Amino acid sequence: MDRYAQLFILGSPRSGTTFLSRLLEQTRYGKPIETHFITKYHKKLPQYGDLSKKSNFNRLMRDILAERPVQQWRLDLDLNDFFDRVSPDYRYGNIVNQLMVYRHGGRDGVSWGDKTPHYIGDAERLFDLFPEARYIYIVRDGRDVALSLLKKEWGPSNTVSCAEYWARQNSHPAVQDRLYRGESVYFLTYEDLLAKPAETIRSLYEFLGESVDPDKLDALIKETQAANSFKWRQTMSPRQIRQFEALAGGVLKRFGYPVISTNPRLRFLEKPLFHIHEKVSKWLFLLKTNLVDGALIRFFGKEPFNK
After folding, report:
1. Dihedrals phi, psi of 112, to nearest 5 degrees
2. What's the pLDDT at 257?
3. Which domain holds residue 302?
4. Beta-sheet pairing, 111-114 with 185-189
5. HEC secondary structure over the chain
6. pLDDT of 206-234, one tens digit each?
7. Is residue 144 part of a domain?
8. Contact yes or no for 64/99 (Cβ under 8 A)
9. What GO molecular function annotations does the UniProt record carry, in alphabetical order (predicted)?
């Protein structure tokens, strides 16, 4: 798989992964996209058996092609031809590479990028599948992440759930271990990207082995919005700040973010009540997604993941 180069942007949702992908569009990787299927089907591989057998290979590919994000690519993929293209290397990593090559027009040796947020929870699988890939890990102040997540119907529905989610997403041992060892992972904060765009973008491009000319750098800098950070200071209530810092204060401190509450703690029954609220909200969202949106996608041509 050394003919290919992969780039993965790791970061919890609403941490700037989409913005970062736009800044990297001019690199050989292009604008990283969300695939969503890579780690999901890596976990399921035992169900498919020997992928060098065409029947098993086709079953896997049909399932991948049926995934909503992949449907949006509108691939006209002949499975028999694709089986021959992958030959003789039927390892899952090569299958993914060849599918991404096909998506980019079939040119051999294509480099590609991915920014699927939830992959941060399965980073160890990515490290195993793509050991030569480059990884960029972006972190944003969890309180700003919470404010953004609370506006999304698919996200956590309250501050307590946001704090637990953000802390969990940014505490995975495989990622932290690579950071400490300095291996193939570039770390940055969303706030540094906004506050020091020229310095950060140059450093990013250098990490990727890319050059950026002054005119392009100026254009990239204009895309940054320094005011889009630390909004929680003006927007979050003292109660929300206390709740978030009670659950995620240690992770905030690890990344250099200030904790302003004095000895923050959750009050009696706050946590279980918010957990109940989260479960009900998630159930209602899944009901809408699976029934209502599913029907709109199937019968009325709605784009999957169009928000």
Report:
1. -145, 160
2. 97
3. 273-306
4. unpaired
5. CCCCEEEEEECCCCCCHHHHHHHCCCCCCCCCECCCCHHHHHHHHHHCCCCCCHHHHHHHHHHHHCCHHHHCCCCCCCHHHHHHHHCCCCCHHHHHHHHHHHHCCCCCCCEEEECCHHHHHHHHHHHHHCCCCEEEEEECCHHHHHHHHCCCCCCCCCHHHHHHHHHHHCCCHHHHHHHHHCCCEEEEEHHHHHHCHHHHHHHHHHHCCCCCCHHHHHHHHHCCCHHHCCCHHHHCCHHHHHHHHHHHHHHHHHCCCCCCCCCCCCCCCHHHHHHHHHHHHHHHHHHHHHHHHHHHHHHHCCCCCCC
6. 999 998 878 888 888 887 776 678 899 99
7. no
8. yes
9. N-acetylglucosamine 6-O-sulfotransferase activity
Of 62, 29, 33, 44, which is closest to residue 204 (Cα–Cα)? 29
In total, how many domains does the chain have? 1
Nearest to 101 by CA among 73, 68, 128: 73
Mode of pairing for the β-strands spanning 134-139 and 5-10: parallel
pLDDT per residue as tens digits for the range 6-15? 999 999 999 9
In a domain, 278, yes or no: yes
Where residue 273 falls among pLDDT bands split at 50, 70, 90? low
Residue from 181, 163, 295, 173 nearest 241 by CA: 163
Candidates 221, 222, 34, 240; CA nearest to 144 is 240
277 located within any domain? yes
Q: What is the pTM of this model?
A: 0.84
Q: Cβ distance 165 to 156 under 8 Å? A: yes
> What does pLDDT average to over the chain?
86
* Angle formed at CA 152 by CA 252 and CA 69, multiple of 5 degrees: 105
